[in-house]
Design a protein that fits this description.
The protein is an all-alpha fold. It has helices at residues 3-9, 13-16, 20-31, 39-47, 53-64, 71-95, 106-110, 112-131, 136-158, 166-176, 178-191, 196-223, 234-237, 243-264, 268-275, 278-299, 309-330; strands at 99-100, 103-104. It is 74% helix and 1% strand. Strand 1 and strand 2 (103-104) form a beta hairpin.
Length: 334
């Protein structure tokens, strides 16, 4: 075990971030609606809170830069999570996902209209909260984040059923998923008064982490068992070509893709059959290797920071993600 690994395992994010309690309180307060019509949606949102990974990454980056998180950090961390939460409600409608985090999705329980309206409510509340800081630069960064996420979603759906190039896939993922982590890095740099180039370096770490995170999600969609805690096979059902399928096509041609992807159609038995094919297993392993390389590239920025518990915890997050992706690719489960 390296010094960095030993240091990181001794300092987990939960122990380093007492501020998360304040972030959670702010999130819960702003998930509550002013309109009684949305009370059921709010109750569902509060029951299905996630790992708060985006606030965790943001706060750890701030601490790794020597900052002592104050009110602006708490607000920015909460806003990142609120914008992410709003995007999930909208995504689940678009993807027709029935399960997320072990529970039925909001639109499944309450209908598309209520899910979209509540997502809009959460997004508007997040920007109102951010505006109260009187930092137009932070508002501009968050507005650009939302624009890029929407652009990524539009680009993905406009290309469903089409044979994406690898570069197209990575550009879509960088916009749709990794933008949250990239913006977390840039925001941490801005609040630490770093110049634009240094803040962008933090953003690059976040982007690499976020793309790898999405590759892991794409692998999960293919290899996770049917009774997993979220919808699986939905990308194939929607005609969305993710990285493992692109690697398959690049290595073995369009016929292999037709044989395995189009016959699978997102159905669990067909996906299991596809994974029994050596060509598909190799494509899954290649996808995991790409994610691992991205995590290594992003972690290179650690060399610019002094050793600290926060730096160690960031390294641990990247290491845990790499280990999860390797387990998925090897067929050992999430």
């Amino acid at each position: 075990m390296t010094h960095e690994q030993a240091h990181s395992h001794a300092h987990r994010p939960e122990a380093l971030l007492p501020e998360l309690a304040d972030v959670e309180e702010l999130i819960r307060r702003h998930l509550a609606p002013d309109e009684p019509f949305l009370e059921a949606a709010a109750a569902h949102a509060l029951r299905t809170g996630g790992k708060r990974l985006r606030p965790v990454v943001f706060l750890l980056l701030a601490k790794a830069l020597g900052q002592r998180p104050g009110v602006p950090h708490i607000v920015v961390a909460a806003v990142l999570e609120l914008c992410h939460t709003a995007s999930l409600f909208h995504d689940d409608v678009l993807d027709r996902a029935r399960v997320r985090r072990g529970r039925e999705t909001l639109h499944t329980l309450r209908g598309n209209r209520e899910a979209v309206l509540y997502g809009d409510h959460v997004l508007a509340g997040a920007f109102q909260l951010l505006a109260d800081l009187s930092r137009p630069d932070l508002v501009a960064l968050m507005a650009d984040l939302v624009r890029r996420v929407c652009a990524g979603e539009i680009r993905q759906w406009s290309r469903r059923g089409r044979l994406l190039r690898r570069e197209e896939y990575l550009a879509i993922v960088a916009a749709k998923t990794a933008s949250f982590f990239r913006t977390a890095g840039v925001l941490a740099g801005r609040l630490a008064a770093l110049d634009a180039s240094h803040a962008d370096r933090l953003g690059r770490f976040g982007e690499c982490f976020g793309i790898a995170y999405q590759i892991g999600d794409d692998l999960y969609d293919i290899v996770a068992p049917p009774r997993a805690d979220k919808s699986t096979g939905r990308d194939a059902k929607a005609g969305i070509l993710t990285l493992p399928w692109i690697c398959l096509r690049d290595a073995h041609g369009a016929q292999a893709l037709r044989d395995l992807y189009f016959k699978a159609g997102g159905e669990p038995d067909a996906l299991a059959s596809a994974l029994a094919d050596a060509r598909m297993r190799a494509a899954v392993e290649e996808s995991a290797q790409i994610a691992s390389r991205l995590l290594g590239e992003g972690a290179a920025f650690f060399e610019e920071l002094p050793r600290s518990p926060a730096r160690g915890a960031l390294a641990a997050l990247a290491g845990d993600l790499r280990a999860k992706i390797i387990r998925l690719a090897s067929g050992k489960g999430p």
